[in-house]
Amino acid sequence: MYADKIPDIIIGRLPVYLRALQRMSDKGLKTTSSQELGEHVGISAAQIRKDISQFGEFGKQGTGYSIPFLLDKLKEILKVDRIWDVVVVGAGDIGHAVANYQGFKNRGFRITMIFDNDKGKVGNQIGEFTVEDTEGMVERIKSTGVKVAMLTVPAAAAQTAAEKLVQAGVKAILNYAPINLNVPSSVKVQYIDPSTHLQRMTFYL
């Protein structure tokens, strides 16, 4: 509904607001203002109001925002008012950490499978998961209808793995490999490369 019209930079700020609102809610707070929310997330009140107003009028002049209402609305907009199944490709250090991370469950995501092409890792247990062979990955993902994947493989293997995920019907890939992926425009890719973020920070030191 909104995807073609709303700038990606705004979509990128919504999870930040969602996280702050959840923390406020956990403390028992029921209402907040754009000023207060801005102080929590380091974004101006005017920018927050502008971002949120892209999706409708959720606050009232003088009374601010209802935290439970805005939480529900942001979850609905980001489509995390449901649980998304996620596959992990790559059973190395990052794959281990991701598979064992407990923070996804209450944020709308559930890891369901983990794959690797290393025969020495296939069949091993990572927490509650048994590592599966990437040879059967396309059919396995197709049969379960999973649309979201995390790619935690080395850079050299990332493009091949991404192509398999696309073939399997995956529409969203979170890529930890330090390489840009070539995928169809219908597939959304987000990149997490700690080195890039460190380089961005050291500019200011």
Whole-number mean pLDDT: 92
Q: So what's the CATH class of the largest domain?
A: Alpha Beta
Strand content: 15-25%
CATH superfamily of the largest domain: NAD(P)-binding Rossmann-like Domain
Helix content: 40-55%
Structural class, by secondary structure, is alpha/beta
How big is the Rg?
Answer: 19 Å
* Poorly predicted runs: none
| H/E element sequence | HEHHEEHEHEEEEHEHEEH
Sketch the major β-sheet: 6 strands, parallel
Span between termini: 42 Å
Read across the widest sheet, the strand sequence of neighbours is 8-5-4-9-10-11
Written description of the protein model:
- By secondary structure, the protein is of the alpha/beta class.
- It folds into two domains: 8-77, Winged helix-like DNA-binding domain superfamily/Winged helix DNA-binding domain (Arc Repressor Mutant, subunit A), CATH 1.10.10; 84-197, Rossmann fold.
- The protein contains eight helices and eleven strands.
- A six-stranded parallel β-sheet has the order 8-5-4-9-10-11, with helices on both faces. The protein has a three-stranded antiparallel β-sheet with strand order 1-3-2.
- α1 packs antiparallel against α4.
- The protein is elongated.
- The relative contact order is 0.09.
Sequence-ordered SSE layout with sheet pairings:
Elements: H1 8-26, E1 31-32, H2 34-41, H3 45-53, E2 59-60, E3 64-66, H4 67-77, E4 84-89, H5 93-100, E5 109-116, E6 125-126, E7 129-130, E8 132-133, H6 137-144, E9 148-151, H7 155-167, E10 172-175, E11 188-191, H8 194-202
Parallel strand pairs: 4-5, 4-9, 5-8, 9-10, 10-11
Antiparallel strand pairs: 1-3, 2-3, 6-7
Helix pairs in contact: 1-4, 2-3
